[in-house]
User: Fold this.
Amino acid sequence: MLVFHGVTALQNWPSFESAILHLVTSGVGALLLVGLWTPIAGALTAGFALWHAFSYPGDPWSCIMLATLGAALALLGPGGWSVDARLFGWKRIDIRDRKN
Assistant:
């Protein structure tokens, strides 16, 4: 969704500041798509989506939903088939039983 909106917004020849924002959000969307730097990209997605929801008039609910998904991805981390999992491996937490 981020890549699609960024590319369609860039086709209308926006101002320089708006073009930079759309390029960054498209890049963040591409990072999330391949699963590279997932916590950072998720946090950036949440921040940009909330900023967009409160800065521009219109329906803010799609931006709020996107911010929620970005925050969830930032907290959950990369998936099993992501580039992050291949580069850094999955972190496994083993909880041992307490012996009385």
About this structure: The chain has a mean pLDDT of 87.
